[in-house]
Specification:
This protein is α+β, with helices and mostly antiparallel strands. It has a five-stranded mixed sheet, sandwiched between helices. A hairpin with a 2-residue loop joins β2 and β3.
């Protein structure tokens, strides 16, 4: 298993993976193109034997910016800096293989540190 940054050519596979996991609620080509093109968003993919089998999409948000995923949440401790919000996380096991899926989360943590950030969140 290899985890690496996505390429634009991976988008059809990402759509297929997300639609397979979530049906009509899965992300479409336009969604991934917008996220791929955004300067504040990153996409990592999981590759097994040359095939993309999972991905994570995450974005940088300002310390006072709250994602729509959190509109019902009350944040008691203010965020101190820009933070990373994991907005999509889909793998072939969809959380059933903790060891494998944890590698993707650890790769996001590593990428977050490279970007000089220390706070990130997954709305699960």
């Amino acid at each position: 298993m290899v985890i690496k940054k996505a390429k634009m050519s991976y988008i059809p596979q990402l759509v297929e993976i997300d639609r397979s996991a979530y049906g009509k609620y899965g992300a479409d080509k336009k969604y991934f193109e917008e996220k791929y093109s955004s300067p504040n968003t990153r996409i990592l993919v999981v590759e097994n034997q040359g095939m993309v089998t999972g991905f994570a999409v995450f974005e940088l948000l300002q310390k006072d910016e709250v994602s729509l995923d959190f509109t019902d949440l009350e944040i008691n401790t203010p965020l101190e800096d820009v933070w990373i919000h994991i907005i999509a996380f889909t793998t072939e096991t969809n959380y059933k293989d903790v060891e494998s899926d944890s590698k993707l989360v650890k790769a996001i943590e590593k990428e977050t540190r490279k970007m000089g950030r220390k706070t990130f969140c997954v709305p699960l």
